[in-house]
Specification:
Layout lengths: L7 E3 L5 E3 L3 E2 L7 H12 L4 E3 L7 H10 L8 E6 L6 H15 L4 E6 L9 H13 L3 E7 L3 H10 L6 E5 L7 H9 L3 E5 L11 H10 L3 H11 L3 E2 L6 H8 L8 H8 L18
Parallel strand pairs: 3-4, 4-5, 5-6, 6-7, 7-8, 8-9, 9-10
Antiparallel strand pairs: 1-2
Length: 279
């Protein structure tokens, strides 16, 4: 049941992950990220999503230390960057992230991109499995993996990914990938759920928002949750952080859900995972 900001989905290993959280992509290290995370936790958020490449893990860690909420109540995610893929490199990168975050363990650790040209994501996954089995990570997963990357991983993995975090919004519904993930009990998670703000003036969404007396952003984020997709919108403004989370007091009708999904154009704002090889 999605009743409030602390509502969770249960991953296939039994770990509970909040349906809703704060993403800190492109949030500046220092006071900006510290203030954003503190505002989110004060507003009731319990999930914070960062990554090594974001360059703000230290600020996230500082906010966690200052927030006054027990570590056990929080769900902290980070990701291994492309340049650090490979077994030994991933172990080192994980330890560095943990040091910057000032934490003893992570709730979720993801491979940031498959980077198929490198051919390293299986070795990287083996490192995540080791860290998971050693109790340093409560759940492990991937980000930006398509069906064929996932199938390749599943074929060679001892532990199946628990989460796949991908670009997901009404212009990119990824229904085939979503079905694949459901079939394999992999929780889909949305990054860039608002398409970096490009959808906020979309007429269909504006009309639906007026009907429910909600913002366009709230409509999109509610659509995510009703599609059983974990979502982590980014904001640095406290009032927006609170507004984004105010989506548990209404339910979109089946008709409106379908109308929003029909906006799909298979359109990305980020790179195609098959082609992205930046290290």
């Amino acid at each position: 049941m999605m009743e409030n900001l602390q509502s969770t989905t249960t991953l296939h290993n039994g770990v509970k992950m909040p349906w809703f959280g704060l993403g800190v992509f492109k949030v500046e290290e220092g006071s900006e990220v510290v203030d954003s995370v503190l505002a989110a936790i004060k507003a009731g958020y319990r999930s914070i999503d960062t990554a090594a490449v974001y360059g703000n893990e230290e600020g996230v860690g500082k906010a966690i230390a200052e927030c006054g909420v027990s570590r056990e109540e929080l769900f902290i995610t980070s990701k291994v960057w492309n340049a650090d893929q490979g077994y030994d490199e991933t172990i080192s990168a994980f330890e560095e992230s943990l040091r910057k975050l000032q934490l003893d363990y992570l709730d979720l650790y993801l491979i940031h991109w498959p980077v198929p040209e490198q051919g390293k994501y299986i070795d990287t996954w083996k490192a995540l499995e080791k860290l998971y089995k050693d109790g340093k990570i409560r759940a492990i997963g991937v980000s930006n993996f398509k069906e064929h990357h996932l199938q390749d991983l599943i074929n060679q993995a001892d532990v199946k990914p628990m989460v796949n975090q991908v670009e997901y919004h009404p212009r990119l519904t990824q229904e085939g990938l979503h079905e694949f993930c459901k079939k394999h009990q992999i929780q889909l998670e949305a990054w860039s759920p608002l398409m970096q703000g490009q959808l906020l003036d979309e007429p269909t969404l504006v009309e639906i928002a007026q009907k429910y007396n909600k913002s366009t952003a709230q409509i999109i984020l509610r659509w995510d949750l009703q599609n059983e997709v974990v979502t982590i919108p980014k904001s640095i403004k406290p009032h927006r952080i609170e507004e984004n989370a105010n989506i548990f007091d209404f339910t979109l009708s089946e008709e409106d859900m379908k109308q929003i999904s029909s906006l799909n154009q298979d359109k990305r704002v980020g790179p195609d995972p098959d082609e992205f090889n930046l290290v």
